[in-house]
Amino acid sequence: MYIHLNMGAPSDHDRIARLARTCANLNLRRAARAVSNYYDGVFLAACGLRATQIPPLVVLYLAGPQGINDTAAKLDLDRTTLSRNLKPLEEAGLLEIAPGDDQRTRMVTLTGHGQEVLRSVLPVWEAAQAHMVQGLSEERFSALLTQLSEVAELTREG
Predict the structure, then answer these.
(1) CATH for 147
(2) How many domains in the chain?
(3) 91 belongs to a structural domain
(4) In angstroms, what CA-CA distances link 129 with 6, 78, 111, 133?
(5) Using CA atoms in the order 56, 57, 59, 64, what is the torsion angle rounded to 10 degrees?
(6) pLDDT-based confidence at residue 45 (cuts at 50, 70, 90)
(7) Domain membership flag for residue 24
(8) Does position 7 have pLDDT exceeding 80, yes or no?
């Protein structure tokens, strides 16, 4: 009697375990959640904002009034997600959303209050950032930023 054993092929269990250990998506999302939770704790305590609410303020501060589409592109978000994320910032008086040149466009502007809040976040962010950089070392942190940019670029090429 002949028994064929396929010893070379990994089992489904082994393949799934490999997915859990090595999947770029799973591991990047896990790290991103951990970092977001850390920054959320820091920002919520300081100014009541989540870490995800700071980037639109930064974009508007640096670029000035922007259309929602331009802001979404700068943040790598789709327009619908950004519009939903801007609502609480508008309600808090940190930014204004007004009609643009035509009925299809909306302009987003950082308010004076938004600028004040963003400035008040700076020392808190600087301390949180220093914690992250010191924890990894400047060299490893710089390499991490480079690698994250390269990973993001890979997704655009595909």
Answers:
(1) 1.10.10.10
(2) 1
(3) yes
(4) 51, 27, 25, 6
(5) 130
(6) confident
(7) no
(8) no
In a domain, 133, yes or no: yes
User: Quick one: average pLDDT of 76-104?
Assistant: 93
Number of C-beta neighbours around residue 151 at 10 A? 11
The CB-based long-range contact list for 40-43 (8 Å cut-off, 24+ gap) reads 42/124, 42/125, 42/127, 42/128, 43/121, 43/124, 43/125
Extract the tokens encoding 37.
Answer: 């939770």
Per-residue pLDDT of 9-39, as tens digits, reads 889 999 999 999 999 999 999 999 999 999 9
- Cβ contact 85:74 at 8 Å: no
Q: Is residue 92 part of a domain?
A: yes
Domain that holds residue 72: 51-157
User: Within 13 Å, how many C-alpha atoms sit on residue 25's CB side?
Assistant: 2
